[in-house]
Amino acid sequence: MPSKASALPYGVSFGGAMYYAILTSLSLTVIFILVLKPLAEYVGLVDEPSFRKHHAGVVPLVGGVAIYAALVLATAAFPALQTRSGLGLIALCLPIMAAGVADDRWEVSFKLRMALEILCCVAAAKWFDVRLLSFGELLPGVDVSLAWAGLPLTIVGIVGVMNAFNMIDGVDGLSGTLGCMTFLALAVLASGTHPSVSQLLACIAGALFAFLLFNSRFFGRQKAAIFMGDAGTMLLGFALGWHLVQLSQGRGAAFQPVTALWIFAIPLMDTAAVTIRRVRRGQSPFHPDRGHLHHLLQSMDFGVRGTVLVISIIHGSCIILAFAFRGFHIPQWVSFWLFFVMFAIYYAVTYRFSGNSVDVSQDTNIH
Fold it and tell me: What are the start-end ranges of the H helices in 129-228?
């Protein structure tokens, strides 16, 4: 494993390199957004209002493309990011991003997209050692090693993270805010053991903050100027899944596997809860409705800003708990069962308020 000194060129301190990486990716993303935004309508890469989407006017779907382009240039600019793992991630994100663009523009079969996601997960596991080896100590003295089950569970895990991040993208600024918080948390956790990975995570967080300047309503906007699109949610979900697995496994792990649950708490619990409710109703797990947390908060008149603020506070609190459990050396099994109890409470509360969740034919995405 490279030392911090070997990972950083020109004698730059690790903290300084982190700030420089964030500023570089932020600036590049802003530039790409400004360049791509006027081109989006020309090529038809836009989201139009419909019976499901009640946003005002045509909105360019260029957030994901701009973020990916910025990360490619940032990787080229920072030698510390040009590791086998970093380059592998950038390479595998390309077909995922391209499939997302195609889906945003023409709508691609769900089965084809799922097949591509699975292939990319297999490639990550086989070529770049992004593979689940253990769930950690889920009971006192019992370490759950995965052996042959590691590969299929890695695929399920990363694909699950990708779709969870995609499902949370239903309100202006929500997926970008949660993503930025999560990538920053991972960057801090990885800084001690994986400096190059930490710098890449900081770049992604910086790119997401730039996206929020155009998408969030907390920066003086009354509506989003751009959307992330499936291109953005899928590539960022893949990057999240990649790092949650990579940094929690093996002898040089940056954190314990259970920490990943707390770092990704809200998208994970929200997706699990709506999936369970749909299955209990005899529906497909992918059957859309208005049962997501952001829908429930909107039904209680929180508004877009209020919804994003409440969910971000809950998610941030879970991240703080992850750091607290790590800092105070709380046993893994205690952390795991506390998360299980928290999810049970989350499910019960959201189930109580989701009784009137409606079918997709009445669904509206608030942008």
Answer: 150-167, 174-190, 195-215
Q: Quick one: the chain helix, strand, coil %, rounded to 5?
A: 70, 5, 25
pTM of the model: 0.93
Residue 366: enclosing H or E segment and its boundaries? Answer: none
Q: Are 103 and 114 in contact (CB under 8 A)?
A: no
186-196: burial string, b at 16+ Cβ within 10 Å, e else: bbbbbbeebbb
Q: Give tens-digit pLDDT for 275-315.
A: 999 999 888 887 878 889 999 999 999 999 999 999 999 99
Residue 145 has φ and ψ, to the nearest 5°, of -80, 150
With a pLDDT cut of 90, the percent of the chain lying above it is: 80
Angle at 350 (CA atoms; ends 346, 353), nearest 5 degrees: 155
Residue 208 CB: number of other CB atoms within 10 A? 28
Q: Which residues contact 119 (CB under 8 A, 6 or more apart)?
A: none
Q: What is the DSSP string of 228-242?
A: -HHHHHHHHHHHHHH
**Cα(257)–Cα(307) distance, rounded to whole angstroms?**
29
Residue 208's closest CA among 229, 185, 183? 183
17 three-state secondary structure: helix
Question: What does residue 69 show for φ and ψ, rounded to 5 degrees?
Answer: -60, -40
Query: How many Cα atoms are found within 13 Å in the side-chain-facing hemisphere of 357?
Result: 22
Average pLDDT over all residues of the chain:
91
Provide mean pLDDT across the span 330-342.
98
Q: Which two tokens stand for residue 50?
A: 């419909």
What are the residue boundaries of the structural domains of the chain, listed by start?
16-48+58-134+142-354
Count of other CB atoms within 10 angstroms of residue 303? 14
End-to-end CA distance of the chain: 44
Burial of 312-336, coded b for 16+ CB within 10 Å and e otherwise, reads beebbebbebbbebbeeeeebbebb
For residue 220 the two structure tokens come to: 């003086």
**Cα separation of 335 and 323, whole Å?**
11
CA–CA separation, 329 and 313 (whole Å): 24
Q: How far is CA 121 from CA 3, 62, 67, 81, 241, in A?
A: 28, 24, 21, 21, 9
